[in-house]
Structures
1.
Amino acid sequence: MKAGDLVLCYSTGIIGKGIRWAQRNLENSHFSQWNHVAVLDRKMGDEWYVIQAEASGVTNDKPLSSVAPGGKYEIVPLPDDVDDNLFLHFVRSQVGSSYGFLTILSCAMDMFLPNSVCLRRNNTWICSGLVAGGLWFSGFLEATRWGDLYTITPAEIAQVITPL
């Protein structure tokens, strides 16, 4: 494990279940088991800390052991063509940004009215949008093909970064 590695999470709460349900309907992918994504930031003692977008905003103060309550997580290295330093620079620079509650609403509306409504506030992130932004910033070509990187889902991130 190293700083910049991605953490794909499966949690057991109602929000996690809702995200997985929505992803299965939109993407029909076995990657829909993942409902959250975070980034390994730094190791202090024996504990890794992560950067993630959560309801309180983009944070870097949570230990890895807390990111998937009641569930599981998997650590996945960044793809080879991602500049790790640029990726970490981007996600670290977003710490303190607000959570994208309107983005989540927009994602939910896309289930019923695909690509017809886009609601978002500047300087806000959802977990997978934050990672997608970091991938785009760091030169990951696949990120340039996403129609809207701000509303990318954890399953879509997992699909493009998980080795076959």
2.
Amino acid sequence: MELLEATVTVEDLDAFVAQVGEIGDEHGVAIQALDARYIVDREHLQRAVELADRAFERGDTIAEDRAVEILLYAAGTRQISRALELGVKTGGCPAVIVAHDPTTETGSNDEPDGARERERAALAAVRSLAEIEPAATLGAYDERRVREWFDITDAELRTGGDLAALVRERVALLVVEK
């Protein structure tokens, strides 16, 4: 899994999504662009990718498309229409863009048949799109948005849980909800 942090300014969301999908297809990777205001850290996305891969390995996916499956896990929901709210939006939006070749092991330095190279090449192609302006976005999440989205209460936070850990727990719980 490789990440690109950027501000994305989109006028035609469908055209942008199609273009990113084509880049993913050209490079043999899944690409998903997410609104960075909902992504608490790299581990949040790493866990979503791992669980999406596991669902594909087991033939137990919610979506047929790996990029959509990654989005569902990152959002912690089985509802595609709801998960799409975590995607980039029309207008300007801080984003984290994930490129993932399923032949890599998430968090590993292994590069079977140049998988990391394909992920990096795909993100370089995405970076060249007019809608993309590289910018540091990961870790600059909106706490209110995150808490509302993942339904994290004051009581949970008072028990010593940190927000990032609670979000990763919600992501993992999607497997249980199946």
3.
Amino acid sequence: DYGNQIRTVKMIRELAGEGYGVIMTTHSPDHVLMVGGLVGVLNPDGVLEFGEAGKILTEERLSELYQVNLSLFHVDEFNRDTCVAALS
């Protein structure tokens, strides 16, 4: 549920901000967009791509990974990016 997801992401951000190294796995690009930092993405060929979240998580790469058309949007009200996938 959204409440627990947000609480968990906030805790991870706080720990990282205190200097802790955090390794997190997720299938939700929104989690990664909320946490930021460095990210590793396992592409369909089994190759690990690594770099800054904002550079690695592009619409093109995410669409390829999830095999669905999607868009990234910045939500000013919450000052963060989010990912929305098409239903068709």
